[in-house]
Design brief:
The protein is an alpha+beta fold. It has two domains: 65 residues, no CATH class; 136 residues, Immunoglobulin-like, CATH 2.60.40. The protein has five helices and twelve strands. It has a five-stranded mixed beta sheet with strand order 1-12-11-7-8. A three-stranded antiparallel beta sheet has the order 2-5-10, with no helix packed on it. A two-stranded antiparallel ribbon has the order 3-4. A hairpin with a 3-residue loop joins β3 and β4. α1 packs across α2. It is globular and about 75 Å long. The relative contact order is 0.14. It comes from Roseburia faecis.
Amino acid sequence: MKKKISLPVMAVSAILLLGGCGTQMYDLSEDEENLVVQYSAHILAKYNIEQKDGMTAASSEETQETQKQDSQMPESQNTQSADNNMASDATGETQTQEMETMPIAEAIGHASGLTVSYKGCRVQNIYQEGDYFAVTPEDGNKLVVMKFEIKNKGKKKVRLDTEKLGITFYACFDGKNRIKETASLGTRSLSSYGETIRGGKKKTAVLLFQIPKDQADKISGETLYAEIKDTIYSLKYK
């Protein structure tokens, strides 16, 4: 009679059997299965530094005590308050929690050498750079193109390379829903910008966002955010 093989056994067996090209899988005998289980348990115990006494099952007393503690835990500890934790993500969920503010020039790593000015946004059906690059929104959406002017206020040239900073930008256009930027391979994308700006010179950068068509005429303001090292900041700009 065939035996059901546990997940660790299946994982080890897959590694052993898939290593050779064209090798047909076969059912393990009881002795082979026991050998694999024992070896897997040995490896897990060897590299699990938190486990010092081997693999042990929880006693019935421990299980009952855990269940008792869970049942006595106040409901307020099991659920997060909607009023205090309305953080949004890439789907554009409502968010109200307070956050730290940061100048946009500081967010892109040049708080002293560059100034970044916001030049407004436009709702478009397509975003295009010259004749070589274009971005179109998903069905039912339109693009919001936010435009920025980056100026080198010094005399020496400054290299701006935002892609290596790993910044993710978000924007809010209705006062409550935060939307993640639309990825772009264009050379002007602020989140992947890589150019040298000479002293006193200006460059143009953009950020792209998608919103439903029925909301395109309802933009009530633009608020920009940046996620840097797992922390989200509200950005300040002129």
